[in-house]
Amino acid sequence: MPRSEASKKQQYAYSKEYQKNFVVQKKLILNLKNEEDAALAAWIESQPEITTQYIRRLIREDMSRAASEKEKAER
Known about the structure:
Elements: H1 5-22, H2 35-46, H3 51-74
C-alpha cells in the first residue's frame, strides 16, 4: 500500500531535522584543468574503495599517526 502524503511529509521533516543535527558534509573541489588536482582526482577514482570510505580511512590513519607522534614527543 502506498504511503500517504502526510506520511511522506513527516518522513521528509524527520530526515531534514536529523541531517541538520547529526550530519556534516565537507566539500572537496578539484579543478580538472589543474594538473595536480587532475592527478588527485584520477588517483581517488582509481582506488577500489568508495571515495567516502577512502577519505575516512586516510583521516583515521592521519589521526593515529598524529597521536603516535604526540606520544613520542611527550616522552
